[in-house]
Amino acid sequence: MQNREKNSQLIKDAARKLGFDFCGIAKAEFLEAEAPKLESWLNNNYHGKMAYMANHFDKRLDPRKLVDDAQSVISLIYNYYPPNRLPEGREDLKIAKYAYGKDYHFVIKDKLKDLLSLLREEIGEINGRVFVDSAPVMERQWAQKAGLGWTGKNSLLLNQHKGSFFFLAELIIDLPLHYDTPVTKDYCGTCTRCIDACPTDAILQPNLLDASKCISYLTIELKEEIPSEFKGKMENWAFGCDICQDVCPWNRFSKPHQEPEFLPHPELKSLDWEEMTKETFDRVFKKSALKRSKWEGLQRTIKFIRSSLS
């Protein structure tokens, strides 16, 4: 037991040195309470056209199916709250704050690989895998079990010290550790600001999101034309959406990140979104999360927003 506590502290100290704001650890086991919730969410088609969400149902619920003999799920928080907001373009077009800089998948995955390498050097042979929003891992549920926060009414993880403008990442390993106490209290209380502010009514009830109505889904995940029912409701978001986070009282505790890779591309501050060519898009967003929508998808969204204003 003493070794478990020593190794756990070693992991948390190493994570902090790599720039992670918080690190918590939970026992790798089947998420029994989440199974019926996930099944119901999928059966109601709240995942929209995100067919991949229905894949690997068992793996989403059991990390031991992702890593042989998994014993521990290490959850980490990495802040992305920008020092300054981007100036909004013509017609006030906006992009989500997480997409200002370099694609977080690359930045954080490299840090996780460094963390795993360091643990192998200090502790010995460890079998494990790193995850950054790229595999069937229920990251918010694991972060809550690891004591990093609670699930807000907007279905995002909230942390009392950081709000919600952060990325979640996981390291699943076959090493038994000292496990943190899950957060079981809902600190949102009676607040419904996120529900009230959502222009597309995507938050059906506390902690139940119809992703197919979410602006982030409509501008990133949906590859087809945006349904006409959302005309006049996009609030000029061209990529992603921060509305439910911007209105959340807990985000008054958000502090600017210290990650140079997350600073905006120099051209981003003066970019004319509507006149941007594909060549400009490919150059400016070569290493950006905006690549996900592609130039064609971004133009589709801008055209839809324009048609809503006419």
TrEMBL record:
Cofactor(s) the record lists: cob(II)alamin; [4Fe-4S] cluster
Domain of life: Bacteria
EC number: 1.17.99.6
Compartmental location: Cytoplasm
Matches recorded under HAMAP family: QueG
Role summary: Catalyzes the conversion of epoxyqueuosine (oQ) to queuosine (Q), which is a hypermodified base found in the wobble positions of tRNA(Asp), tRNA(Asn), tRNA(His) and tRNA(Tyr).
Record-stated family: Belongs to the QueG family.
Protein name per Swiss-Prot or TrEMBL: Epoxyqueuosine reductase
